[in-house]
């Protein structure tokens, strides 16, 4: 076995494997189901869609519940995807680390903002 | 490694301008790279998506600003520019969605992993996503 501990430990590179491959699929499917749930409610609105109807969808507690799950799923799904892109196209480790940090900050920020929006309602 | 050992072949003809543009990409390959590109587009437009949600559900006033954004614009962005951004989002989402389902189908079904299905399913994905983009885009731009 190669030395991969102590000062020789490698912290970047593809050793994430099965967990994230499966997570991408599962989060994708969960978001697809959410899309169907949201679309169904929108299509069932009679007449023009005003603020009351649209915001009313997200005011329901069960919708808030599954929207949170969807937002978290989105953040994870996007992280795995962006990490794959960076691993494919950015070989210099230092630069890739900086870009990965940017991606994480971006995603965490969007997630936090999204949760804040949901709970203002 | 001795001198008689064959040198491992290297393929470095992937210059985006002089090489990649000369290769004939199969349908499945085009779908695949667009799957990646659409994901990237949605990643960068994510704050915009959250802003759309925020403005549309926070209050009656913000909802009015939301609908106005598509006509008179918001901040420094004109109405038509926002509509174009939303159109890009619509295409990106539909393409990523269809190609993603295709990915999962090929993950769960051994029968589907062959060149013929790769081609036919890619064509179907393009057909569905582009058709829906056209329909939703026409609605967005007020064509019906």
From TrEMBL, chain B:
InterPro entries noted in UniProt: SQR/QFR_C/D, Succ_DH_cytb556, SuccDH_FuR_B_TM-su
Domain of life: Bacteria
Main location per the UniProt record: membrane
Subcellular localization, as worded in the UniProt entry: Membrane
Keyword Nuclease: no
Cofactor: heme
Residue ranges crossing the lipid bilayer per the database entry: 33-53, 73-94, 121-141
SUPFAM superfamilies documented for this protein: Fumarate reductase respiratory complex transmembrane subunits (SSF81343)
Quaternary structure annotation from Swiss-Prot or TrEMBL: Part of an enzyme complex containing four subunits: a flavoprotein, an iron-sulfur protein, plus two membrane-anchoring proteins, SdhC and SdhD. The complex can form homotrimers.
Main function: Membrane-anchoring subunit of succinate dehydrogenase (SDH).
Similarity comment: family membership: Belongs to the cytochrome b560 family.
Protein name: Succinate dehydrogenase cytochrome b556 subunit
Species whose genome carries this gene: Comamonas squillarum
């Amino acid at each position: 076995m190669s030395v991969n501990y102590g000062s020789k430990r490698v912290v970047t590179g593809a050793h994430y494997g099965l967990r994230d491959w499966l997570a991408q699929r599962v989060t994708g499917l969960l978001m697809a189901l959410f899309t169907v749930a949201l679309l169904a409610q929108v299509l069932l609105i009679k007449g023009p869609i005003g603020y009351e109807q649209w915001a009313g969808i997200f005011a329901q507690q069960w919708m808030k519940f599954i929207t949170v799950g969807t937002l978290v799923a989105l953040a994870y799904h996007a992280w795995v995807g962006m990490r794959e892109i960076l691993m494919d196209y950015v070989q210099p480790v230092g630069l890739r680390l900086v870009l990965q940090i940017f991606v994480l900050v971006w995603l965490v920020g969007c997630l936090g903002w999204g949760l804040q929006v949901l709970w203002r309602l | 490694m001795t001198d008689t050992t064959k040198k491992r072949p290297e393929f470095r003809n992937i210059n985006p301008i002089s090489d990649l543009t000369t290769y004939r990409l199969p349908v499945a390959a085009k779908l695949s790279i667009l799957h990646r590109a659409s994901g990237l587009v949605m990643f960068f437009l994510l704050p915009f998506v959250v802003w759309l949600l925020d403005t549309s559900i926070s209050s009656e006033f913000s909802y009015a600003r939301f609908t106005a954004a598509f006509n008179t614009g918001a901040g420094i962005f004109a109405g038509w520019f926002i509509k174009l951004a939303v159109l890009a989002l619509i295409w990106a989402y539909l393409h990523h969605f269809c190609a993603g389902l295709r990915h999962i189908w090929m993950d769960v079904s051994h029968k589907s992993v062959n060149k013929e299905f790769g081609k036919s399913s890619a064509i179907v994905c393009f057909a569905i996503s582009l058709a829906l983009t056209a329909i939703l885009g026409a609605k967005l731009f007020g064509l019906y």
